[in-house]
Structure formats: C-alpha cells, structure tokens
C-alpha cells in the first residue's frame, strides 16, 4: 500500500521554543512533560508558540468475530448500542470531550449495525471481522480500505481546521485483538500481556489467553510485515486508527493515543512508517497489562495514570487540558529577562 508523505519536524522552531522555555521564570525543566509537549507541538506546527485550540476526537468502531468465544464481559450488541449512545452525546467520551472543548466524530468502520445513525461517519468495510483463530480476520483489501478510512477522516478534519486529535475506539472483543497484536510486536508472552478488558473473570481470562495462542499458532505472524499481521488478526477499527495516525502525521496534526487498543494501532502505524512517531503523544496509562509494554515500545510517556480502562478516547480527552496548559505556559509566562534578571545558561 502506498502511504502519504510525512513532513519532518521543524527542528529550528523546536530549538527556538526550547530556548524560550529555558528562559521562563521557573527552574530549568521544572514543568516536566508540559515543556516536552510544547516543544514538540512547536516542531509539528513550525510555530514558536503553537495553537491547539481546535480539538477533535475520533472514535473508530468495529466488531470482532472472536467476540463469540466468551472473551468479553459484554455481548457484541453493545458496540452498536454505544454507537447510538455516542451520537446522542451521552457516553463518557461525549462528557469528557465537552469539558475539554473538543468535537467528537464517530466512525463506523466495521460494526454489526445494519442501520447506522445519520450522525455517524459511515465507512463500514464489512460487518465485523472473521474469527481470527479460525481464519484471517480481514482480507488485505479490507485492511487497506479500513486504513484509508482513517486517512480520509483526518484529511476532512484538517480541512475544517482541526489542530489536535485524540483517537479512541469502541469494539466488544477488541482487547483480545490488541493483546494478540501486542504479543506479535513485543515478543512478550500472551499470559503476561492479557488483561481483563471489560472485566472478565478468571475462567474467561483463561479462554481469552487460549484463543489468542490458537490464533498466533495458526497464523505464525511475522512482526516485520505489519500490514499482513493486521489482516491476520484484525480488527477493522484498529486498521482505521492506524490510518488516523498515518493521516495525522501526513497532515501535520499532533495526535493523542488513548488506551491499549489505540496504542497497538499506533505501533502498527509506526511499523508501517516510522516517522509517524514524531506526531504521537501518549495520554494515559491503562490498567491493561499490555499498555505499558506498548507505550515503552513506542518510547512514549503517558501523562495520566488514573486506573482507566474504558477506551473511546476517554483518557486522551482527559489529557487535552495539559496541551492547552503547555501552550499557555509558552505564550504567557514571563522570562528572566522580563524581570531584569540574567537567564540561566
Ligand atoms: O482503552 C483501554 O485500555 C481499554 C481497556 C479495556 C476495555 N476497553 C474497551 O472495552 C472494549 C473491549 O473490551 P473487551 O473486554 O470486550 O475486549 C472496547 O470497546 C474498548 O474500548 C478499553
Ligand atoms: C458499556 C460499554 C461502553 C464502552 N465503551 C468502550 N468500551 C465499552 C464497553 C462497554 C461494555
């Protein structure tokens, strides 16, 4: 698949912002991650004082064949019910995005819904993936189509002037998919990586581990072939999110990763095109054991640790104010020179 070109960071602007941040009236480095966020935003936008006032959340939705194997605490119908909830503005992500002043865009890239509410961006590639322990979850064509959905959605948001993105998902069964993908790319064992997702009991957790191991045994996925691995294991919303990261990088838009599923999609995107990494920010650390391992593989540091395990981009929406804070610091703080003091060297 041919990927769009990704612009490099504006290194000179980053140096300029770093210099400015180091002259602000505070001990050097004392604003920690806020400083790093401001500097990278400056590098992405090519502006010493970046602007992220227009924010948007993308929720990629899809269903999974493996959900019929007792791997989730909830039935697959919940994916469709939550799509309706999102467009009514009543889900957690709607509340958190409203608080942060961000718009929410819901994309159906593969749910089981036959009738998709009109407020949803309906880009359904197919109704759910195939069961990954029985056959390949998606054809190569379906995989590419789902990635392109993500790229196109970002192109449209870029036209509207969106300056900061958060990416999340909804899909019953998708922590099983994310764990399988994490095992392929991190080389850690499935039992180390698997978690309780929506809240499964010990018996279901054992079933989840076994079905993932069966899928890996069947497909023998090769971590050097990310597109192929994505077809083998799924899912449609994971591919859609990988497309969002690629599209955001190509459009020069910073993009926040949410929980374990959106982070494995980010790792896939980076495996496909390493320069995507420059545009990614981690928002929080999920309870799912695979999440820390994946963030580590990406070299990303989460901002929030609040015991979250929801998805929907909820953790990313909570981190939006940190981005506003990072920009405000650079824009509004006095420098040592303003106080008539020498700057630290
Ligand atoms: O973001 C996370 O780290 C996260 C952790 C656990 C569960 N989820 C959400 O819960 C659903 C997947 O859980 P499960 O148990 O059905 O695999 C899916 O809709 C995700 O958005 C999300
Ligand atoms: C109710 C519900 C809401 C969700 N949002 C993201 N994943 C979810 C899973 C469930 C079960």
UniProtKB/TrEMBL annotation:
Pathway: Nucleoside biosynthesis; alpha-ribazole biosynthesis; alpha-ribazole from 5,6-dimethylbenzimidazole: step 1/2. One of its GO terms (molecular function) is nicotinate-nucleotide-dimethylbenzimidazole phosphoribosyltransferase activity. It is an enzyme of class 2 (transferase). InterPro entries: Nict_dMeBzImd_PRibTrfase, Nict_dMeBzImd_PRibTrfase_bact, Nict_dMeBzImd_PRibTrfase_N, Nict_dMeBzImd_PRibTrfase_sf. Its EC number is 2.4.2.21. The active site is at 312 (proton acceptor). It catalyses: 5,6-dimethylbenzimidazole + nicotinate beta-D-ribonucleotide = alpha-ribazole 5'-phosphate + nicotinate + H(+). Keywords: Cobalamin biosynthesis, Glycosyltransferase, Transferase. One of its GO terms (biological process) is cobalamin biosynthetic process. It comes from the Bacteria. Belongs to the CobT family. Catalyzes the synthesis of alpha-ribazole-5'-phosphate from nicotinate mononucleotide (NAMN) and 5,6-dimethylbenzimidazole (DMB). This is Nicotinate-nucleotide--dimethylbenzimidazole phosphoribosyltransferase. It comes from Thermoflavimicrobium dichotomicum. The gene is cobT.
């Amino acid at each position: 698949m041919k990927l769009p070109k990704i612009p490099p960071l504006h290194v000179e602007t980053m140096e300029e912002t770093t210099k400015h941040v180091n002259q602000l009236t505070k001990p050097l480095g004392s604003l920690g991650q806020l400083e790093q966020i401001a500097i990278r935003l400056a590098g992405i936008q090519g502006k010493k004082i970046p602007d992220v006032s227009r924010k948007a959340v993308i929720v990629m939705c899809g269903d999974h064949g493996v959900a019929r194997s007792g791997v989730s605490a909830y039935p697959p119908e919940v994916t469709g019910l939550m799509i309706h909830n999102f467009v009514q503005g009543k889900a957690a992500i709607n509340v958190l995005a409203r608080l942060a002043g961000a718009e929410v865009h819901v994309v159906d890239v593969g749910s089981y819904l036959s009738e998709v509410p009109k407020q949803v961006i309906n880009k359904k590639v197919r109704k759910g993936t195939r069961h990954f322990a029985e056959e390949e979850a998606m054809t190569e064509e379906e995989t590419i189509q789902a990635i392109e959905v993500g790229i196109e959605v970002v192109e449209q948001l870029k036209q509207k002037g969106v300056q900061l993105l958060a990416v999340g998902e909804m899909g019953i069964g998708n922590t099983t998919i994310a764990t399988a993908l994490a095992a392929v790319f991190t080389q850690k064992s499935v039992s180390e990586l698997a978690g309780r997702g929506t809240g499964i009991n010990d018996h279901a957790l054992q079933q989840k581990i076994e079905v993932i191991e069966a899928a890996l045994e069947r497909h023998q996925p090769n971590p050097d072939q990310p597109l192929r691995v994505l077809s083998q294991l799924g899912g449609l919303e994971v591919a859609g999110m990988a497309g969002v990261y690629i599209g955001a990088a190509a459009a020069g838009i910073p993009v926040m990763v949410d929980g374990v599923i959106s982070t494995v999609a980010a790792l896939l995107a980076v495996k496909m095109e390493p320069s995507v990494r420059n545009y990614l920010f981690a928002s929080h650390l999920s309870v799912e054991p695979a999440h820390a391992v994946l963030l580590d593989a990406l070299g990303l540091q989460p901002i929030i640790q609040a015991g979250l395990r929801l998805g929907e981009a909820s953790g990313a929406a909570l981190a939006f104010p940190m981005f506003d804070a990072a920009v405000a610091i650079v824009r509004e703080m006095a420098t040592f020179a303003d106080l008539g003091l020498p700057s630290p060297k």
